[in-house]
Design a protein that fits this description.
20 strands
Amino acid sequence: MSNHVEIPATMKAAVMTEPGQIIIEDIPVPTPQANEVLIQVVAVGVCGSDVHYYEHGRIGPYVVEKPIILGHECAGIVVSVGEQVSRFNVGDRVAIEPGVTCGHCEYCKEGRYNLCPDVQFLATPPVDGAFVQYIVMRHDFVFPIPDHLSFEEAAMNEPFSVGIHAARRCRLQPGSTIAIMGMGPVGLMAVAAAKCFGATRIIVTDLEPIRLEAARKMGATEVINVKEEDPVAKIKELTHGRGVDVAWETAGNPKALQSALSSIRRGGKLVIVGLPPQDQIPVNVPAIADNEIDIYGVFRYANTYPMGIEFLSSGKVDANLIITDKYPLSRTQEAMERAIHHKNESLKIIVYPNE
């Protein structure tokens, strides 16, 4: 295929000028550096962090201080390549890993590049994100996808990667029993990851019926509505008093974290994925010590994209099951509002920058 395609001088971008306000602007199309590729963005997932920035203007230490473009779960088509890039050609279909790291610090060197202090992560202030028609990305954070994998599914490799990383962090074993607390999109993709890693019993909790039903479709073996049942008592009942081997907290909810800890067997593992609104949460320290509970923090992911694309492409995971809403770029603010106000109807929202 020719390495030349007509690229416009300007493009549409959904710019958050202040919390709660997104406008569509014309901005210049970026030019790829020697080690970058220019990608026409086809599909972008709306993430909980995007919604949080839109609603509150900050997440922990990351504060929106000037207009920003949100969106980081993305996939598209290569339209231009830098002179040093030999891995890609114009027309290649790709998934984009949104965090470009330095490659030189001790964390990058030891393969834990998600801990790189100099990461440039899309849609994390002050870095602009993917609610744009074109985006540049360093070539080593771009991954080819097969023709039969849709751009929407490829974009879902980003939240899916969180689950893959969680499974690797706690060395999830085939045949394990696992409880996953919180069935937002990350939790739902975590169900898929646990299934791919061989967990045979996957118990999930949430308070929205639509999310519990989606969890069943993604591979959950038992679902618990926390509005109707005590999750710890139910998990203990389901496991004949033993508890689960592993519990993942994916809701960012203090009560869910406490429930996760209480549902683990002696010698089991707790994985903290969700970020609660407050920094300090009381936990039962004697229970952690007496039962030798291993605790793992999870921050994004590292070296997960090829495996995620493999799982998604193989048919083991159907990410389409969680996609409920689709919007053009011109209605990005509407997509955000739906994510905030319709959690009982919407799971994953996709924005299409070039429609």
